[in-house]
Please model this.
Amino acid sequence: ASALDSMHRQNIIHRDVKPQNIIFSSQNADAEPWLIDFGIAQAVNTSDPAQNRRKSGTLIFMAPEQHYGKPQDARTDQYALAVTAFWLLTGHFPFDADTAEELSGKKMFPQLTLATVSESLKPTFLRALAYEPKDRFESCGEFVKALKSQPTQSSSPFQMPSADSDSEKTLDEFREAIREAISQRTELLKDYLPESARIATQDSEVTRRCAAYLRKLESEIADFDQKISQMRADGMREDGPAFRAVIQQHQEHADMKLDFSSEVPPKTPKEWEMLLHWKEECKRREEERKERERKEKERIQREQIKQMWGSTPKDLKAGMRFVLECDGIEYAFRWCPPGTFLMGSPSSEPRREDDETQHRVTLTRGFWMLETEVTQAMWKSVMGTDPSHVKGSQNPVECVSWDDCQEFCGKLSSKLELTVSLPTEAQWEYACRAGTTGAYAGDLDEMGWYWDNSGSKTHPVGEKKPNAWGLYDMHGNVWEWCQDWYGSYSTSPTSDPTGPSSGSFRVGRGGGWGSLAQFCRSALRYGSAPDSRYGSLGFRPVLASPVPEE
Model:
C-alpha cells in the first residue's frame, strides 16, 4: 500500500496489482513485500483525461472503470489491492463468475457477493470495492489502516487452525471426501458395465431392423416397376387429364403441352428421359422467373428510397418506415430527419459521466436507421455464420467486433446498391433521443432489456416499446457500435461531427442486457478496442443520404 501511495503521489498508476506481482525480499517472517511488473503502468495525464482510459490488466482484479475503458486514477489500484487482500485473507475472490459480462455485473453489486468475509471487515471491503471511484478510500494506506483497525475475534474465518485440533479435523474431512469420491467412482463403473452391454445389444437390434427395412424397400421397388410396366401397357390414358392440369400451370411454356388422351405415351427409355428433362427445365425456368421478380422488386425499392431522398427530404415525416428486402430478409428502416439537438447530459443528470459534456449539434443530412438491432438472421444471410452466444434468429447478433461490422456493412451495401454504414455517435444519440432531452427516451422498463429485467440474456428484437421515431431497443439488449473513435467532445465540430481522426477505442452506445440503468442512458458513452467481441455488443446500421438537405 505504501509503495502504491508513493507511486500515486508521482501521478503514476500501476494498473495490474495482483498476488503474482507481489514478491518478498526473503523467506523470513519479517521480509518486506515488493511490488513488481510495471509493464502496463501509466502516468496520469491531467491535461487530457481521455488518455487515462486504456483497458489493460487482469480481468478479475480490474476496477469497473478499467474494465469499461473509463478514466482511471489511484483509486483504480486501490480496487485491485482490495481484491488481492480479500484473496489473501479468504483464499478465494470476492466475485465468482463464468463470463466477463457476468463478472462485470457482480462488480456492480459487491454487497451481494461478500458473504464469506467477517462482518467486521465487510464495510471496509465494500468501500474499497465500491463501483464508483469517488466512493472508495482516499488512498491505499487508508484502506489498509481501516483493515488493521478492525477487532480480531477468535471465531474469525481468517484465524489459522491449531495443529492439534482444527488441522486434524480438516484432515479427517479431507480423507472422508476422498473415500466418498472413490466410492462414487466405483459405483459409476459398476453402472457403466451393464449399460455398455445394453448399448451393444441395441446396436445389433438396429442393424437387424435396417436389414429388414432394406428388404421391404427392395420388394416395394419391384412392385413399383411392375406398376410402371402396366401403365405403359395401358397407355396411361386415364392419367391424361391430371397431366394436362399440371402442364397448364406453366403458361409461358404452352407450346410444350402434351395431350396423352390422343397421343401415344412415351414407351422407350429415351422418351421417358425427354419427359423428365422437360419437367426439370420447367422447374428451372420457374425458379429463374421468381429470381427475376425478386431482383426487380429490390430495384424498385432502391429507386423509391432514392426518390424519397430527392429534392424535398424535409417533406418526410420523422419515423417514416421503409422496408427493403434482400435475399428473403426484410430490413425495416426509420427516417431520422436533419435537425439540431443537445448532445450529452446536463450537469444535473444523476449518475452522469465526465465525458458527457452537453453541447449543441446540428445534423444537416437526414438518414435512415435500422428499426431494430441487426438480428442473427440478418447477419447469417450476409455473412454466412452466426457468432452469437445466445442463439435465436430474431435475437440481436452479438460477439461481433467493430471490424466485423464494417465487413457486414460493406457486403450489404453491395447487395442493396446503397451505402450502408455504422451511425456516427451524433447520429446514434440524435436517433435515440428522438426529440427528448431526459436521461432516457421514455420509461426504461417499458423500452429496454437491462440488468433489472433481462434475466442475464438477450431477447428477440422489437419486444419492448419503440421510441417516438419507431426505433426499438435503443436502450439495452446489446450495446451498439458507432463509427467514431472515442474522444473528448471539446474538439468536436458542432455540425455533422464524426469524432476524432484516430484513437484506440471505438464508441459503443445504449447499454446492454447486463448493464445497470445508468449505463443505458441516452448520453452514456463507452469505448472498446475495434477487435473486441462481447456477448453484449452488437450494432444497427444506417443508410447514408446521397444528397444534402436544404
Residues 44-55, 152-168, 181-203, 235-264 have pLDDT under 50 and may be disordered. The two ends are 61 Å apart (CA to CA).
